[in-house]
Structure formats: structure tokens, C-alpha cells
What does this fold into?
Amino acid sequence: MAKLNLKVNGEEIEVEAKETALLLDVLRLGLELTGTKRGCETSHCGACTVLLDGMAVHSCVVLAARCEGKDISTVEGLSHEGELSELQRQFLKHGALQCGYCTPGMLMAATALLRRNPRPSLEEIKAGLDGNLCRCTGYTGIFDAIQTCAQGKANA
Amino acid sequence: MDRKLIRPETMEQALTEREKYGRDALPIAGGQSLLVLLRNKLIDPKMLIDLQTLTELEGIEQRDGGLSIGAMTTIHNLSWSSDVHKVASVLAQGASKVGSTAIRNLGTIGGNLCHNEPGADLPPALLALNATVELRSRKGSRNVPLRDFFRSYFETVVAPEELLCGVDVPKLPDGASGVYLKHAISSEDLAIAGVAVVVVPDEQRTNTVREVRISLGGVSPVPFRAAKAESMLNGATLSDEAVREAAEAAAAESDPMTDPHASANYRSKMIKVLVRRAIAAAMGQLERNGNGKA
It folds into this structure.
């Protein structure tokens, strides 16, 4: 076992984990941050997407030990003082989910996309979500929610 | 037993660990393929040697009109590098088609080559660029042309005491253009067939080429250059007929497999289509801009 010093959603946390533990397991089992979902565990589905220094990564294929000294953001960190983020509000408004299992990953991938490209086109949104699968919605609600965010920023 | 993570701070240390543990330890670059193999229990090394701390293995530099690329350079950085776009756009095209955004953010060029999974996107592009790789061990280093690097499914010539440290892409001939085309059901899949083409024009005669390079991925145990097809086109005027015959030859040179994604027969047919399309697209680029882009 090793002691890891991680910074998760702005908070410095010490956690015990196996030397080659995956970030997904440390978040869910070690820190009980279960918003990050366990999906395929083979980097296909994106349910476990978190941000590492602002970049979308699949936490099922990231060694937790490598994340020391980096900013880890999970879905639990999106809301601020009980207020949902704009993206989360738009997901609600557009019904961008059915079963909701892909939603945390979708939110994180879209958050990374909007930070890097505040006004993405529909094609850019699709490309930005190429690592995230949704088996319920057909994606349209998700794309609408993200586009509304993008337009909101454009008008601001 | 828990698997150990070795975190060398210098290249020298990494090579020492590599020599000491041989096949018991696997180097981990971006981890995007390796950690999936571990999860599926396809491999079970006692240790992982983490290369992430070796920042000297990261970066892209223009050198003698070509590129020198560190093994730990991420695929994201390859696909966005202005140097790569300027000097070897076919490599940027290949990089942009690897996996998904999240995989490109962490996956590396060195890991992609060493993993040697059929259908990987970088090997065809780098083969068409006549790239070489640098392998280092405690005893010294050797440069291996990429066409001699791949041995079989998931196997390369990298010895248990060696590390792949960098990839060199030589300068392309003036006016050359390059295209990578990938056929996959979903964009994040491996290629059912991937084709990279580099065309070097003959400045004296229109529609005539000095050299055509064709490399194929996903359709044989290893990615390879379709030498016979190339020889049919080198120095030739590219009529539809000549290109079609070369595309047939390229398909005949491949040895495709049947897997859940596609049958061998389908892969063979797709090669013919993709080789034709890639050559047409590269010739189209030449017409639009004879400015040395590839």
C-alpha cells in the first residue's frame, strides 16, 4: 500500500491505495466519490470521465499514483455552494438523460470541451464527446444542453 | 500480490530497472492500452516502470527539415502541433483519428508503436514517412527503421532491456503530399483498415509521380508498406487504370484477419477502395498547393 496525496475538487486529501491502483477505484472506494461511474473499465464508454488538470480522461485507465500534484475534478465538484453549474442546469432543462449512468462522464467531458472551446459547433461537440457513450437518449438532449451553454456564453 | 510501481527519476535509472527486471517489469507510457490489458488479465507483470517522470522523452522538434519526437509525446500534442502539421501532415491526420479525446489526451506515440495493436492509426502514417525509432538500453542505442520494427500481433523488436525513446521523421521531398484514411464503424474504434499514402510529384510532367508510398494498417499481422503496389506507380502517370491496378496489388499483399468488426474479405475490399481514395486525395492536394506540404 502507498499513501497518496491527491487534490480532488480543490481539496488536498491523503488516501491509502495499492501502488498501481486506478484513479477510478481510489475515487469510488477510497474517497467514496461515487458520482464517477464504473462502466466498461476498458476506456470505451466514458462513464468514468474526470478532469486531470482540466483535460478529460477516463479514470479507469489512469494510475492514481500519477495524479499526485495534479488537479482532479469529478462531477461532485461541478456545483458551487449548492448551486448547479450552468451545464448541469441545461442538462436538467433539456432532459439530457434517461437512466443517468453516463451523465457524470458526459458532464465532465462537456465541461472540458467548453473550457477549451467556449463556442463549439455541433460537429465540435460531437467530436468532444467521442469518448462517451449514451445508450438511452440518442444524444440529442445532450447536444442541445451543451449548445445552449455555448450560446449563452456567446450572448453574455 | 500487489503489483509494484517503479518510478525512475532519470533515463539512466529507468534503463537500469529495465535491465534488472527484464520481462517481469513492463514500461508504462500513457497506459491507455496497457491498463486495459491488465484489467482483462491478458498480461500479469510483477512491476510497472513508470516513464511519465522522464520529461526528456516529451516534445516535438523540427530537425533537418524533419521531426524528432519524444516517445512520451501525447497523441493530443501530435495532432495539434503546428510543426507536425507543417512538416508531416499525414502524421497529424493519423494522430487525430486515434481512439477518443480522452485516450488522445494521455496516450503516447511510443506506447502506440510498442503496443502494436492491429488497426492502430500512427503506424501507417509513420511508415509512409520512412520514420525510424530510437531504442536505448544500458549498453547503448540503436536506430531501427519502423518497417523493421513490428514483428507480429502485439509484438515488436524491442528487447526486454530496451526502451523506445524517440521517433525520427526524415524531411519529405519538396512538394510531397500525404493522406491518411481510416475505415471504422465508430470513430473511437481501431481501424478495420487504415491507409496512409505519400505522393511525391514529378515537377516536369503533370499527373506523373516520382514516388508513391502506400502503407496499410489493420489488414495484416503487422502494419506494412505495400512495396509491390508502390513499384507499379513509382515514376508512372497516374491514370485511373494504373491506380486501380496498384490498389488491387496492395490488397493482394495484405493478409487480413476476420474478427468481430469485419471479415477478411471485407477488409481486402476496403483496402482497394481506401488506396484509390487516398491517392486521389493526395493528388488533389498536389493540385491545390504545390507547396511542400505532406
Observations:
- Chain B is about 35% helix and 25% strand.
